[in-house]
Amino acid sequence: MTKLYGILKEKKGSSFPLIVAITLALGIILCGISEYMRLMIIASGVRDAVQSAIISTVNDNYDDVYHGVREGYAGGYKPSGSSWEGSIDYGDIYEYLDNTLGLQKNGGYHVKYAGEGVEFKLSGLSVDITNVPFAPSDSDSAQGLLADAVIRLEVPMSFGGKSLPPMRMNLKVKAKYMPLFLTVSEL
Predict the structure, then answer these.
(1) What would the 3-class secondary structure string for the chain be?
(2) Paired residues of 150 in beta bridges
(3) CA atoms of 126 and 21, how far apart (whole Å)
(4) pTM of the predicted model, to two decimals?
(5) CA 164, CA 157: separation in Å to the nearest integer?
(6) Phi, then psi, of 58 in degrees rounded to 5
(7) Which candidate among 63, 96, 123, 156 keeps its CA 20 to 30 Å from the CA of 46?
(8) Residue 132 — very low, low, confident or very high, per pLDDT cuts 50/70/90?
(9) Model pLDDT, residue 38
(10) Has residue 179 got a pLDDT over 70?
(11) How far apart are CA 134 and CA 72, in angstroms?
(12) Residues 128-143: what's their mean pLDDT?
């Protein structure tokens, strides 16, 4: 370390290439860190938007869970003759995301453009809504109306040109419908 410090302190000019190399290395490291931060900010924003869309979808089921709430748990059921049948509303999550994030449909993708370039792409949305069992014997052990969603995010790299592949990741979010008011037996 003292040898490196000695080279940097020389007045002959022999340290110039070393200083340029160190400056370039620090510039590349700084660009890599800023690219990493950009990718994480995009992933976080998309995950939050998908979470909001899933919560909106679960809350849109409120009209069908009324009958279950009366029994002390929340489930999507409606009367059908003399019995009950499941009633789940999946909503339109892609439309919610298109409006929230400003996406445009392009082929099988929902794409966010930054100018003329692609900022990120979404595809492969999978939503699984699990209804509560009808009239469970133990409502405390019933998990509630759950929605699990998985969506594929693809973000092209702006660092390294085309030599680096785009970042691809599956974002998983989960939401649960809970009644606002509890029955006396749940207190």
Answers:
(1) CHHHHHHHHCCCCCCHHHHHHHHHHHHHHHHHHHHHHHHHHHHHHHHHHHHHHHHHHHHHHHHHCHHHHHCCCCCCEEEECCEEEECCCCCCHHHHHHHHHCCEEECCEEEEEECCEEEEEEEEEEEEEECCCCCCCCCCCCCCEEEEEEEEEEECCCCCHHHCCCEEEEEEEEEEECCCCCCHHHC
(2) 126, 172
(3) 48
(4) 0.73
(5) 7
(6) -65, -40
(7) 63
(8) confident
(9) 94
(10) no
(11) 11
(12) 72
The three-state (H, E, C) secondary structure of 16-68, written as one string: HHHHHHHHHHHHHHHHHHHHHHHHHHHHHHHHHHHHHHHHHHHHHHHHHCHHH
Confidence band of 163 (pLDDT split at 50, 70, 90): confident
**Hey, what's the torsion of the CAs at 27, 40, 116, 53, to 10 degrees?**
-170
Q: Which amino acid is at 102?
A: G
For 24-48, what is each residue's pLDDT tens digit? 999 999 999 999 999 999 999 999 9
| 63-100 per-position pLDDT tens digit | 665 555 555 556 677 778 888 777 777 778 889 899 99
CB pairs under 8 A, 24+ apart, for 165-172? Answer: 167/39, 167/43, 169/43, 170/124, 171/43, 171/46, 171/47, 171/50, 172/148
pLDDT at position 63 is 63
